[in-house]
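Section handout 9: paired folding examples.
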Amino acid sequence: MKNLFKLFAVAVVVLSFASCATYQKQAPIMGINSNTVNTYVKADLDYKNAKKVEGKIESKKLFGFINLNFNGDKTLKSTNRYRNLTKTEAQALYRAKELNNVDIILEPEFERETHSWFFGAYKKEVVIVKGWGINIKGIKEDTMMNPHMPVGGGLFN
């Protein structure tokens, strides 16, 4: 029995040194000019006061589904361009937007660092998003983009 316990203890020590790490960075391939949103309004963006923003989320999980730290349920996802974000990416985007008091984050880049131990039983992930934070000064109707709206008439008259 003692030998079995010693063997188990040695196996736990050996497994604790078995780990792997990955690093991922995601950035958009297309520039701002080709990113159109068909809402038929034009936004007056405050480019003059644009600033670099950053948001960071750290996640620790046991067995892939037991959260060991709680980052909240607030996420920011887009229905068009950034709809395939993971939960931690969406949380980092939300945190960056709220902490920096901006309306939009232009060209967000995601950095992901993942470490796992005990053959994936315990995983630690850090996601950092960086981009340009910008505020909207106002909006107006875009009659050139809306083929169904008569020129001179519409929502904001």
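Moving on to protein 2 of 2.
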Amino acid sequence: MAETTLKKQQMEVIAISVLVAAALFIGLARFKKKPADDEVFSKKRFNQEWEKVEKLEKEIPAVEKEIAFSVVRARTPFEGPFDTIKQIEVKDEEIALPVMEFQGVIWNSIRPQAVIDNKVYMIGDIIKIKNELEEGFDNVRISDITEKGVHLEYKRTEFIVKPKLTYNNIGGQNENI
């Protein structure tokens, strides 16, 4: 039995040696030196392209031209297109607001409101007032509501109606503004 195991071991060593030799032969055949033109990036082609780059670099001027920048109108970079104040044309005729009764203003909230003629209005709302001279209605638009008053637009003219009576919290008395 000892002889058979020795022969098996010798056969295994020979088989492994043959397999290793075949792997080395196949590996060396794959890494065989190829001609320079068959490479993906041949040195000859690289050198030609590099010469083109060097020619282009020589054409670049040493001193670049200066760019002149002039400001036509000074403008704040944080100014939006709706932040500018529009100039409203004033016509020769005197325009007066129709008669309205202002009862209250809530200006320091998310939705500022004004109470006019017993109705609550917000910014952007249109107040319809019956025109007695002409048949129909006049439209008065609320453009803003602030602590200074209610900003109204009527016939392309802007008006600010200020509150006439405020409550003084400290003294508890009413004051006329």
